[in-house]
Design goal:
Elements (H helix, E strand, L loop, with lengths): L14 H10 L2 H5 L2 H15 L3 E3 L6 H5 L4 E4 L3 E4 L5 H5 L6 H18 L5 E7 L1 H10 L7 H9 L1 H25 L3 E6 L7 H22 L5 E5 L5 H9 L3 E3 L6 H7 L5 E6 L1 H6 L1 H14 L5 E5 L9 H12 L3
Parallel strand pairs: 1-4, 4-5, 5-6, 6-7, 7-8, 8-9
Antiparallel strand pairs: 2-3
Bound molecules: coproporphyrinogen III.
Length: about 325
């Protein structure tokens, strides 16, 4: 029986989340209020008994803590003041980082105190490439034009941005671990848009630096990398980043992943989030296929991307039961 947790397991598909979110005001108010953020982290644990809780926060809190303006427009997603050159970059600083992120450390420590010892506590951050795309584009993007053109045209200049994110991320995750996080996930949601050499330089290499720093300080804390859309690049990613686990998106073929990735480290994934919206036997059959493909090696059940707001909570309960049903 593999352990199970779901990316974005705390969130809008839960009525109890929507109620607390309405009370808190905005999404960012919720993130920065440790009592509320701890409560939201625990909601899916109480309801479904997942094997891990992931701390409630966001990958864009680092850019904000570096001094970049951030807001979430209702129904539109994040909006940031874009950083597209050395001058804009020079306005960012590590100086206020911990002061700004202190409430997140407080959330970790509260949740750590409230969780039973059967439930793992996962801390997280965005991987540098994915965080950089939001910082440079100023929000979500369709083709990542500004970020890619900067990285291709002026790799040394773009590296200064990546280096800053790497440094901030190591500091941030170290404090999450000090506060009680027992595993770390790095979300590289947009890894899959990079050509081979850029993937090596802007996804694998910065991730490797973060993993190396964390492993040196905290050898017992596993790091899971999730380079979404990396395809056959997952094999190199597993070999060269030093991660202990690799998250698989839903498009990754199971038999390939077993020999190319699970032979190197733990795999995590990869049910299509829309399968949980669909529910029923389509979902349970797919659960069986995934569980059986990975049964002979290290495996954590998850989705291939975050759970969707329209997911019926009863389908999540059925999913957990299916994963835990004896084969
Ligand atoms: O997994 C969890 O339950 C922990 C919390 C968590 C959130 N965001 C809360 C959130 C985690 C791990 C994230 C990661 C995150 N944030 C990623 C990487 C993973 C992925 O989904 O690809 C990215 C790209 C972001 C940036 C972000 N945050 C976007 C683009 C958006 C808007 C789109 C959306 O889903 O609304 C957010 C907002 C956000 N982050 C919400 C939640 C629960 C919704 C906020 C609300 O209540 O309106």
């Amino acid at each position: 029986m593999p352990p199970i947790w779901l990316m974005r397991q705390a969130g809008r598909y839960l009525p109890e989340y929507r109620a607390l979110r309405a009370e808190a005001g905005s999404f960012l108010d919720l993130c920065y209020n440790p009592a509320h953020a701890a409560e939201v982290t625990l909601q899916p644990i109480r309801r479904f008994g997942f094997d891990a809780a992931i701390i409630f926060a966001d990958i864009l809190l680092i850019p904000q803590a570096l001094g970049q303006d951030l807001r979430f427009a209702e129904g539109e997603g994040p909006i940031l003041a874009p950083i597209r050159d050395a001058k804009a970059l020079s306005a960012l600083t590590l100086e206020g980082l911990h002061k700004r992120l202190e409430p997140i450390y407080e959330t970790v420590s509260r949740v750590h105190g409230l969780l039973d010892d059967q439930t793992a506590l996962i801390g997280f951050a965005g991987a540098p490439w994915t965080v950089a795309t939001y910082m440079v584009e100023g929000g979500g993007s369709r083709n990542f034009e500004h970020t890619k053109v900067w990285a291709f045209r002026d790799p040394a200049g773009f590296a200064a941005l990546i280096d800053l994110i790497v440094e901030a991320t190591i500091a941030y995750l170290s404090r999450q671990i000090d506060a009680g996080a027992e595993a770390i996930q790095l979300f590289d949601t947009w890894a899959g848009v990079l050509p081979e050499t850029a993937f090596a330089r802007w996804s694998i290499e910065p991730t490797h630096r973060i993993v190396a720093a964390l492993r040196a300080r905290y050898p017992a804390i596993p790091v899971i990398g999730f380079p979404r859309g990396a395809g056959v690049g997952l094999q190199d990613y597993a070999a060269r980043t030093g991660v202990q686990g690799v998250g698989l998106d839903s498009a990754v073929p199971l038999s390939w992943a077993r020999q190319a990735v699970q032979s190197q480290c733990t795999v995590q994934g990869n049910l299509d989030p829309l399968m949980v919206v669909a529910g029923g036997t389509a979902m349970t059959n797919e659960v069986r296929r995934i569980v059986s493909a990975f049964k002979d090696g290290p495996f954590v059940f998850n989705l291939g991307h975050g759970i969707l707001p329209q997911t019926p909570p009863e389908h999540v309960a059925a999913l957990v039961a299916a994963v835990r049903a004896p084969a």
